[in-house]
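User: Good morning. I'm curious how magnesium ion would be positioned relative to this chain. Could you predict the structure with it bound?
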Amino acid sequence: MSNPSLLILAGDGIGPEVMDEVKRIITWFGDNRDLAFDVSEDLVGGVAYDKHGTPLTDETMAKAQAVDAVLLGAVGGPKYDALDFSVKPERGLLRLRKEMDLFANLRPAQCFDALADFSSLKKDIVAGLDIMIVRELTSGVYFGEPRGIHMENNMRVGINTQRYTEAEIERVARAAFDLARKRSKKLCSMEKANVMESGILWRDVVTEVHEADYQDIALSHMYADNGAMQLVRAPKQFDVILTDNLFGDILSDCAAMLTGSLGMLPSASLGVPMANGRPKAMYEPVHGSAPDIAGQGKANPIACILSFAMALRYSFDQGAEADRLEAAIEKVLADGARTADLMGPEDGTPLSTVQMGDVILAALDASL
Ligand code: IPM
Ligand code: MG
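Assistant: Good morning! Here's the predicted structure, ligand included:
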């Protein structure tokens, strides 16, 4: 049997730096756990634009469709701010999500004990936090038509459309209920049914799916603005949160920061199963390209490494190996390993990106 295949799209900014550490981790699993992958690499985002004039070529898109999983770093940067909207780095990422039909975006926000002091919230509010945001990723206002900027009565008007079909709501709701069933059987769905018809439909469909097939799950509904407030007031009331594309974008940044740093949060974007039974999948850290620190070896590689752990779990059925990798990260954090994002200005010298990779690899060695 051939090895499972991975396409690495490191992208822009700190993407290549953090992905270099992931590559070392992938090699470690091949060398030590009999888990070899066929790894190929290509360009996405600004670097793809620089070379090809487009943030994602058709060839790269075809490769992404053909592999077992895509690992993505980050896209974007100030260098590309003035580009036409249609070729901005972000369009490459959105095309991957849309054409691979990655409708369920899993964003876990977990507070590592060793970092609870570092959150901007009080320690007892975040210690032990473990929530999972399930964000719809292929529809809603990100993709709805009509959209654009046009003239009306000599004035520019900007338009985007929030649009959801019941099938789109139902499939992501099922993904979230299935996850809730494996966790604490609690799901909170967030929308704005008080002001948006699409929110009313969202609430109706989630309720119908619940009544039909998931009555063992405790379902609640919340307006998304209240959800944002509750996330910083008492985040541990939540387990799985289900929400749409735009609210999910915002709520997941908020939830991520509860844990101390955006540099810690991975994500998985999953679609329908392929012929081999594995879901279409892309794994990426929630943090962006962080142009302010790019190229300096300061970035925290943990979010990207944890994204590979999610790949082990969700694409390759290697839950025990994912546990091993997550435990190695927990261990180095407990031992005090810190990149700059996890330290205050007076806390001493931070580890570089590579040094953080080194200590995680050492912890993996020690786990054998
Ligand atoms: C995210 C990012 C993206 C989004 C950008 C880079 C297009 O913020 O993955 O959360 O808005 O979805
Ligand atoms: Mg975002």
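The chain has two domains: 1-122+261-368, 130-258. The chain has a mean pLDDT of 96.
Let me know if you'd like a different ligand tried.
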